[in-house]
Amino acid sequence: MNDTGTTTQRGGGIPAQPEARGATAPEPGVIAGAGPTVRPGERPTVRLREGGEAGEPPRYAPEWLQLREAADAAARAGELVDPLRIRLANLPRRGGGLVVHDLGCGTGSMGRWLAPRLDGAQHWVLHDRDPYLLHFAAVASPRAAADGSRVTVETRRGDIARLTPDALAGASLVTASALLDVLTGEEVEALAAACAGAGCPALLTLSVAGRVELAPHDPLDAEITQAFNAHQRRSGLLGPDAVTAACAAFAARGATVRVRPSPWRLGPGDPELTAQWLRGWVGAAVEQRPGLAARAGKYLAARLAACAAGELRVTVHHSDLLALCRPAGGAS
Q: Which of 159, 67, 151, 71 is nearest to 111 (CA)?
């Protein structure tokens, strides 16, 4: 699904993860986490914070970010762009146009989706902790805004979970994709405080909502969903509670908050993405609840077969959040 021509998606199978805390994986190819594992010789995306549990697998691999980009673009709530454009039009204009900070930019898919939807010159500041991904995002960034104005980029390598208002000084907009649910409550509070301190809006897309619908239905769907959601909340992460927490954090600082659904709708036209998502979804559930392993192995095999036959449809629910913080200097 890479539309940039910058990197090539590798084919072949996905190696099995090592056994997680003594649990047996449901079948070879089940992946811990919601995306493909890193293959030998490949670089993962960088973690959101230093450290982490010993042996914790990388959260994302570059191939996963590329594979999901088209589904992400189709899912994002486009109706939030108009109120954002209105707010940005009312902000004091700086000589260089809009300054947009993209947090945890990964391969830069958010910029490729949003920059061509906004008017005026834009300077995107791309934040991530992986220099490879920062380079990819910069090279593949869009060059023109909706009205043909110039789009420029710079990269900043660092820990986005430790952003301060000073780091966002001069920002017109903060964006992120698939970020909120992998933050803690304290980190979401810090993000809201930084945006409010800078007086800039925030568009935070594709946070997991904790709901999945598969057709045809299977009795194990609900149990896998519950275990996966518990996995998302491990180690103090917010997981499916992130949007509720972010709404409260921004509202407490005087922001107007809007939330819209942004579901993935995967069907026969998305076999590779659906299969990768299934492996990650079931693998995380089993890592959280090892007692599911035997039943989950049969479940996954059946679901993958239905996917390969074009008989499976999946809706993975996400939410997009637009927080219109009070502009600095009293602008409306």
A: 151
